[in-house]
Write a structure and sequence with these properties.
It is a single chain. The chain is 39% helix and 12% strand. A two-stranded antiparallel sheet has the order 1-2. The chain is rod-shaped, with a radius of gyration of 30 Å.
Length: 69
């Protein structure tokens, strides 16, 4: 338990670029989220094969009220 407390006491690694500063852990989490997002856009949806085309209607459906004057 003392080792875990000592590990939490250390400050994390930070990357700095000009005025911008981010912890390495947060940068890795953001990069992982971007990778998952891109994969979700590019990979096919499970079970999403080609859909069956809708049946073609050859004539208009009958009017239930009868012919119009």
């Amino acid at each position: 338990m003392v080792g875990a407390a000592a590990a939490l006491a250390d400050s994390g690694s930070y990357l700095q670029w000009g005025w911008f500063s981010i912890s390495l852990t947060n940068l890795l989490i953001i990069a992982g989220m971007v990778v998952v997002f891109v994969l979700a856009l590019l990979l096919p949806f499970p079970g999403g094969g080609p859909a069956e085309p809708a049946p073609v209607q050859t004539r208009a459906p009958a009017d239930p009220d009868g012919p119009r004057p």
